[in-house]
Amino acid sequence: MIDSWKNIDNEDFKLGIFLWVFHADKIPPHIGISKDGLYFSLKVSGKDENISVQKITKLLSTKKIPTLVIKTSENSIKNRQLETVFEKYQKANSDGLTCLTPITEIYFSETQDLILLELLNLLNEAGVVETIFGINLPADYIGIPAYSRSDIKNRLYQLTHAKR
């Protein structure tokens, strides 16, 4: 699915719906979503809500995080507001609540047990993927690495139990 992308060229991400795939070269990556310049994400440490995408792009630039940003068509969101969905969740955990849980609810009006590649394939098949942008991707980047649900669960467990 992700076999080509555009290098970023002053795209401001202020208008439209975008999926953000942070650490796109890691297993598993982290996923967030933005709509009209406001970013949302569910994390082990809590959640991001209504964060300016300018702040996100500045962070990506400063930390050089390899990221894919996938623009989806406006009609891909099923009349649900990001705020309404994200307010239901407190944080991701190793019991099945992942960064992708609220995003699948946003796109399908109910949560789906999907991993990122499955979600992207469904969105692509539905014809809602418009453009894929690459930010800070290594020269030899060939796409999102394959991973399993157990990889996600293990990573969430590690993050939940990490000494802070």
Care to describe what's here?
- The protein is α+β, with helices and mostly antiparallel strands and 164 residues long.
- Helices cover 28% and strands 24% of the residues.
- The chain contains five helices and seven strands; from the N terminus they run βββββαβαααβα.
- The protein has helices at residues 53-63, 82-86, 101-108, 116-125, 149-160; strands spanning 6-7, 17-22, 30-35, 38-43, 46-52, 67-72, 129-135.
- Strands 1-7-6-2-3-4-5 form a seven-stranded mixed beta sheet, with helices on both faces.
- The model has no long low-confidence stretch (mean pLDDT 86).
Characteristic terms for this protein:
alpha+beta, 164 residues, 7-stranded mixed beta sheet
Topology overview:
Layout: E1 6-7, E2 17-22, E3 30-35, E4 38-43, E5 46-52, H1 53-63, E6 67-72, H2 82-86, H3 101-108, H4 116-125, E7 129-135, H5 149-160
Parallel strand pairs: 1-7
Antiparallel strand pairs: 2-3, 2-6, 3-4, 4-5, 6-7
